[in-house]
């Protein structure tokens, strides 16, 4: 655990013991699968340890589905991917470079048309990839579509195509493909947090915990 997260953990635990010994309730959180896989478990574990009476219900899904369900009242708060320039609701809590990811460095060297492994449209990463390739006039095709992060990574490991991921989320043994392969630079990814209008105090506390922890680690 990093120093910053240790400090957050100690602070949350002290506050919980001194000021909020009985805080409880259910908080429903929606989050994109890739962000949940890498960044969120430790953050939620710290909150759970500081507030053991709070019941967290976490759902992983595509951003479009999360937003639809959030507006239908299914979640108290959501973390969603968005374009940095977009005038959308919520506050930015995370920003990270996106990279091209393949089975190995040579994956894009010998192909005229770039085979892409992507989530279904509409998807922020899919749009970033296709827009960037269109901008340099490089042909592309959707070779594999998967709604799950594990499915996409399996397709890339099998050599079926190239995908896009945040830099810190590239798993071994997959490789980050450099610019020498003729692939364009991608804009950063952005994650925003949106709270429901009727969110409980417990839910708001979780939102603040997520924001403060990510601010110390981004």
Mean pLDDT reading: 87
Q: Ends: how far apart?
A: 15 Å
The CATH superfamily of the largest domain is identified as Periplasmic binding protein-like II
Which structural class best describes the helix and strand composition? alpha/beta
Main sheet record: 5 strands, mixed
Number of helices: 7
CATH structural fold name of the largest domain: D-Maltodextrin-Binding Protein, domain 2
In total, the number of strands is 10
Q: Can you identify the CATH class of the largest domain? A: Alpha Beta
**Shape verdict:** elongated
Structural overview:
With 218 residues, the chain is α/β, with parallel strands linked by helices. It folds into 2 domains: 3-95 and 190-217, D-Maltodextrin-Binding Protein, domain 2 (3-Layer(aba) Sandwich); 98-187, Periplasmic binding protein-like II (D-Maltodextrin-Binding Protein, domain 2, 3-Layer(aba) Sandwich), CATH 3.40.190. It contains 7 helices and 10 strands. It has helices at 3-18, 33-38, 40-50, 63-71, 124-135, 149-157, 201-217, and strands at residues 25-31, 54-60, 77-82, 91-96, 98-102, 114-118, 140-145, 163-166, 175-177, 189-195. The strands form 3 sheets. Strands 2-1-3-10-4 form a 5-stranded mixed β-sheet, with helices on both faces. It has a 3-stranded antiparallel β-sheet with strand order 8-5-9. Helix 1 packs parallel to helix 3 (40-50) and helix 1 runs antiparallel to helix 7. The longest helix has 17 residues, at 201-217. It is elongated. The mean pLDDT is 87.
């Amino acid at each position: 655990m990093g120093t910053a997260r240790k400090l957050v953990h100690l602070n949350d635990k002290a506050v919980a013991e001194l000021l909020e010994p009985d805080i409880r309730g259910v908080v429903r959180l929606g989050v994109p699968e890739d962000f949940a896989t890498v960044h969120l478990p430790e953050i939620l574990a710290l909150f759970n340890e500081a507030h053991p009476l709070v019941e967290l219900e976490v759902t992983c899904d595509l951003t479009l589905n999360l937003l639809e369900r959030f507006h239908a009242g299914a979640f108290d708060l959501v973390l969603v991917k968005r374009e940095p320039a977009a005038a959308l609701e919520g506050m930015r809590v995370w920003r990270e470079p996106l990279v091209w990811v393949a089975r190995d460095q040579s994956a894009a060297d010998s192909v005229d048309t770039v085979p892409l492994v992507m989530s279904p449209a509409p998807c922020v990463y899919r749009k970033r990839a296709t827009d960037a390739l269109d901008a340099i006039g490089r042909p592309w095709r959707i070779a594999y579509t998967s709604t799950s992060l594990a499915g996409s990574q399996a397709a890339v490991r099998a050599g079926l195509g190239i995908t896009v991921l945040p830099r810190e989320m590239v798993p071994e043994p997959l490789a980050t493909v450099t610019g020498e392969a003729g692939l364009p630079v991608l804009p950063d990814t952005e994650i925003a947090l949106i709270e429901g209008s009727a969110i409980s105090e417990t839910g708001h506390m979780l939102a603040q915990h997520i924001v403060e922890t990510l601010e110390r680690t981004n």
